[in-house]
Design a protein that fits this description.
The structure holds 2 protein chains of 2 kinds. By secondary structure, chain A is mostly helical. Helices cover about 70% and strands about 0% of the residues of chain A. Chain A is built from 17 helices and 2 strands. In chain A, strands 1-2 form a two-stranded antiparallel ribbon. In chain A, α2 packs parallel to α8 and α3 crosses α11. Chain A is globular. The N terminus of chain A is likely disordered. By secondary structure, chain B is mostly helical. Chain B has a domain of about 240 residues. Helices cover about 75% and strands about 0% of the residues of chain B. In chain B, about 50% of the residues are buried. The mean pLDDT of chain B is about 85. Classes of the chains: A mainly alpha, B mainly alpha.
């Protein structure tokens, strides 16, 4: 996306602007690369439409949590309570989804997530509690509250129990019938690039839950609202310099409060997606730390929606390969990572200096060695991928990451003087 | 009232206020859900059984170590969210070392404890190093390290696990009989208090001594209160960050030890989890003070123990106290701030009054 008219982009180190064209080119490049890797290793499951569909389902909750984090952190409130808000969302979907119907479940997930957001907002915005402390408290309370309420709501209900709701009715899915079949045939031929393209289109045109479409739309809506409207500019100014915003007459408290509420709603929706699309029940422990992965995806994406989308896609993809028994498939990806790291090291020698390049090259070589001495990656280790990736990105590119300037800083009304 | 007694009253008022607020909020939740409020509180606030006292002291021991680990970071303005991952990696490492039994008897125990401290310190040290060399926030890196720890331990556990036929619990080799730490008998019960309670007490005393009575502790508190002032007085802040992360991680490494040597005797998939986050809450409640933390740990352990029978007696989920505990974290922080502002106002009024008298006289 174009970032030309961004007044908050900062003045230091002018960077090449990333335009829409570059993104398409990057996506096309990735497709060709994966296709090549698929042909070379014979691991056709790397990008089959089944894998891609599962990736979408895995990526959406991560993306929703990350989007929640984006809203809140853009307004200057660090939100590590995302996990708790997501947990509340899974219960909201389970309770309202089972007792009232699937659409009510979606609303319930959003509302319960917003309750978590409200708690965080009251603590951090109204009372000025440290954001991390409040986030930890929200996570503890949300987990306790859902376990307590679930026992109350679902024990004795047929098919339910103290840790699980009965099955929730499915939301409608969308299939464009004329296209799906020919695409499937094309994909089965395993042609270079053509079949891969068919798989991508196939995944996007068949059995797509309306909630998936809704969530993907929310990405675009969030970008437009935050970066293309007056409201969004004001909201982001509260995260960059609340004093300056206040001196211009913006009600900083109100913007921050609203941002954290939206944040909770989005994270709750992500939880609801887990309960209603990724599975069909609320289960205790269903989020499995996805709130934290969402936070990681947002940081990976440099506090921007496009980067966040890429991050959640990547993390969702590794998660999917793991669940599809893809020890060998991910093993093939190691070679790609190693090659990428070495290329990056060469680039770093020219741009950034020797020390960083040396570290990158060493990591690259280590990954390559790993590829050649092993046959497959154990499932437990592939689960680490999102977290290790985020740590590496933070360690290697921390200078290029730019979080909102006043993110996490306490703000009290009248501090502009 | 003299200023000194005013300060004392205010100091007690804050946690009392926080507890009352948490009590009210929990009651609201109970009322909203339609559970019997009176009966629930009657059970929670009743006197524990003899067995109950032992359980409370035991879980407070574990909570205490976790909270001290968090508090070390807090004094330095570092947020060690990673105690959770650190203690699990350490407990696993110590269980493997102890299970192998390279040394006889208690030497083996000491070796395992050292291994726990070392591994915990190293795991936390990663976050410390990332912070000083690459400027990565320790909050984010420790969250990532927690998750990595979960997967890493699961992976390694599967590698070294010994499984009993007919049981699907995987765990490390059991600690040899001679290396286990005997419990302390009390009230004539068969259940015992963890022998490593003394380790927790020793850690508490050492924490108090190092923070308050040594140059290092002074440097640490100075850095925590004002980094610029610390730099101006010649403190190497980066070095302090790494050292305090190592210390915090080292103590975090001990969190699982009372469980390992007094209860479980092995590390398995059922080893208690989530202790790190409770530690954050308790450190906040106890204001990072060694005695305050002890009281906080006892309170949390008391709530846990007393809530257990709720399920059987009243058909109420014991998870209700988790809500209380989480709310305490928020109310305690808010209450300290409210009381601090009130104290400042009182002080202003007192000084103004004294000045007025002086002028009048």
């Amino acid at each position: 996306m174009s970032m030309v008219a961004d007044p908050t982009a900062g003045t230091q180190s002018p960077r090449p602007k990333i335009s829409v064209g570059w993104i398409y080119l990057g996506l096309a490049g990735a497709l060709v690369l994966i296709s090549l890797l698929r042909i070379v290793t014979g691991a056709h499951d790397l990008d089959s439409s089944g894998t891609l569909r599962a990736t979408l389902v895995a990526a959406v909750p991560i993306g929703m949590a990350g989007l929640g984090g984006l809203w809140s952190e853009r307004a200057g409130i660090v939100n590590i309570g995302l996990e708790g808000m997501m947990i509340l969302g899974t219960f909201g979907a389970g309770y309202f989804g089972y007792f009232y119907g699937p659409w009510q479940g979606v609303v319930g997930a959003i509302l319960l997530g917003m309750v978590g957001g409200l708690l965080h907002a009251i603590a951090t915005v109204t009372f000025g509690v440290d954001h991390i402390v409040s986030g930890v408290a929200v996570n503890i309370i949300a987990l306790g509250a859902t376990q307590y309420l679930a026992q109350l709501a679902f024990t004795g209900v047929p098919g339910g129990g103290s840790t699980q709701s009965p099955s929730i009715d499915k939301l409608p899915t969308v299939t464009i019938s004329g296209i799906a079949d020919p695409l499937g045939e094309l994909e089965a031929k395993h042609w270079f690039v053509v079949s891969d393209l068919a798989a991508v289109l196939g995944a996007l045109t068949s059995n797509l839950s309306v909630l998936t479409i809704l969530c993907l739309l929310l990405f675009g809506v969030s970008y437009l609202v935050l970066w293309r409207t007056r409201f969004g500019l004001r909201l982001r100014s509260c995260g960059e310099s609340p004093e300056a915003a206040e001196s211009l007459g913006i009600n900083v408290i109100r913007y921050k409060f609203l941002a954290v509420l939206v944040s909770g709603g989005l994270a709750g929706l992500g939880g609801g997606f887990l309960a209603m699309v990724a599975s069909s029940t609320y289960r205790d422990g269903q989020t499995g730390g996805r709130g934290y992965i969402g936070l990681a995806a947002m940081i990976f994406g440099n506090w921007r929606p496009g980067g966040l989308l890429a991050g959640s896609g990547l993390f969702g993809y590794t998660d999917t390969l793991r669940l599809r028994g893809g020890g060998e498939t991910i093993h093939g990806l190691l070679l790609l990572v190693a090659a990428g790291l070495v290329v990056m090291a060469v680039w770093q020698v020219r741009k950034a200096g020797r020390r960083g390049a040396f570290i990158t090259a060493a990591v690259g070589v280590a990954v390559a060695v790993w590829y050649f001495v092993t046959e497959s990656i154990p499932e437990d280790l592939t689960g680490m991928t999102p977290y290790v990736t985020t740590l590496l990105v933070l360690a290697l590119f921390s200078q290029r990451l730019r979080m909102p300037a006043a993110d996490g800083k306490p703000y009290r009304k009248g501090s502009a003087g | 009232m003299t200023p000194r007694s005013t300060r004392l009253v205010l100091g007690i008022a804050a946690p009392a206020l926080a507890l009352v607020a948490a009590f009210l909020i929990t009651s609201l939740v109970l009322a909203f859900a339609g559970d019997p409020i009176g009966d629930v509180w009657a059970q929670i606030l009743s006197l524990p059984s003899d067995r109950g006292y032992i359980n409370i002291v035991n879980s407070a021991t574990v909570y205490y170590l976790s909270a001290v680990a968090v508090a070390i970071g807090f004094r330095m303005n570092l947020f060690n969210i990673g105690v959770d991952g650190q203690y699990r990696v350490s407990a696993f490492a110590a269980a493997v070392v102890a299970g192998e039994g390279w040394l006889p008897g208690y030497l083996n125990t000491v070796l395992a404890l050292l291994a726990a401290v070392l591994v915990g310190a190293m795991w936390a040290g990663i976050a410390g190093l990332l912070r000083v060399t690459r400027g990565v926030s320790e909050v984010i890196s420790t969250i990532m390290l927690n998750a990595i720890a979960t997967f890493l331990v699961a992976y390694l556990l599967r590698k070294v696990a010994v499984s009993d036929p007919g049981s699907n619990i995987t765990s490390t080799k059991p600690v040899p009989e001679g290396s286990r730490v005997p419990g302390i008998h009390a009230f004539g019960e068969t259940a015992t208090i963890y022998g490593l309670l003394f380790l927790a007490v020793a850690v508490g005393i050492a924490y108090w001594f190092v923070i308050n009575k040594t140059r290092f502790g002074f440097d640490l508190r100075a850095t925590g209160q004002s980094e610029t002032a610390a730099v101006a007085s010649g403190i190497n802040v980066k070095r302090m960050i790494v050292i305090s992360m190592l210390l915090s991680g080292g103590v975090a490494g001990l969190v699982g030890m009372p469980l390992l040597f007094g209860n479980d005797y092995a590390y398995g998939s059922t080893f208690q989890s989530g202790l790190g986050f409770a530690g954050i809450a308790i450190a906040l409640l106890g204001r990072n003070h060694p005695v305050g933390i002890a009281l906080g740990a006892l309170l949390f352990a008391f709530l846990d123990e007393q809530a257990n029978p709720l399920e059987i007696l009243l058909d109420v989920s014991p998870q209700i106290v988790k809500i209380t505990q989480g709310v305490i974290v928020l109310t305690v922080v808010i209450a300290y701030e409210v009381v601090r502002r009130y104290g400042v106002r009182l002080e202003q009024r007192r000084v103004a009054g004294a000045l007025h008298e002086e002028v009048a006289a």
